[in-house]
Design brief:
Elements lengths: L1 H25 L12 H21 L1 H8 L6 H14 L1 H21 L1
Length: 111
């Protein structure tokens, strides 16, 4: 007799879950993103910026060497080292900021 009770309880739970989810399933879907603001657009832009950053590092061996040494370090130490590096190398900071600017622009436009 306990097996049918378990089955009844399981059916009741499943039914509650099914009907409890019905209102959210009937809700209107979120509006589509603005043109140029889709997930695909963002991922494509990240790829372009990544490629440009890699190209920069390949053509600026000192910057490449510095950033390569940061891997595996604690985040707070990395931030301080990067801040110090950029303070000593303002042109590198400016150039890397320029490479990353399209992502900042997209985030501002699409948020």
């Amino acid at each position: 007799m306990s097996i049918p009770k378990r089955g009844l309880v399981a059916a009741a739970i499943a039914g509650a879950a099914l009907f409890g989810a019905a209102p959210s399933a009937l809700a209107d879907p979120p509006p589509p993103p603005a043109p140029g603001c889709s997930a695909a657009d963002f991922e494509q832009l990240k790829g372009v910026v990544s490629t440009a950053t890699a190209d920069y590092f390949f053509t600026h061996p000192d910057a490449n060497a510095f950033f390569s040494t940061l891997k595996g370090q604690p985040r707070d130490q990395v931030k301080q080292q990067v801040d110090d590096y950029f303070a000593a190398n303002p042109q590198t900071k400016s150039e890397l900021d320029g490479i990353r600017q399209p992502i900042r622009d997209m985030k501002a436009r699409c948020s």
